[in-house]
Amino acid sequence: MAALPMRCRKYLAERGLGYDEVEEGGQRGIVLRAMPLPPGRFNATVADILIMLPPGYPDVAPDMFYAMPWLRLVATSAYARCADVPFTFGSQTWQRWSRHSSDWRPGRDGIWTMIKRVEAALELAA
After folding, report:
1. Which of 35, 94, 96, 98 is most buried, judged by most C-beta within 10 A?
2. Sign of the alpha-carbon torsion through 30, 32, 37, 43
């Protein structure tokens, strides 16, 4: 199964990001392994991040992302806003981070765009 185009794989390799391509029930995605989290913000220092890749990717944008373990804000011990719904995939129950964007540029954007969205959401979590 090859869910990622070569340019996305090249980007991940250049950044030294470990990942697995995953598929279940006809859904495809990638899991970014042990992604560093903003220091002192969450109850963990790293998390696996699942990004589901829709049919037509990369011309069609990924939508939300999912974290494992479930992340709580250190300051409040609460989940971040819109990050408290479970999503079962690959026999695990992931924490869904409902973050949407309508500015995807088909033919220009790729996994790098989604990773920047994930990093921004984690940095700005409240």
Report:
1. 94
2. positive
Residue 18 belongs to domain spanning? 6-120
Residue 1 covered by a domain = no
Q: What is the mean pLDDT of residues 1-21?
A: 90
Residue closest to 65 by CA, chosen among 4, 122, 2, 22? 122
In the three-class reduction of DSSP (H, G, I as helix; E, B as strand; rest coil), residue 40 is classed as coil
Tokens coding 75: 């300051």
Q: What are 33's strand-pairing partners?
A: none
Helix, strand, or coil (residue 28): strand
pLDDT for 1 beyond 60: no
Q: What is the pTM of this model?
A: 0.95
Provide the 8-state DSSP code for 73: B
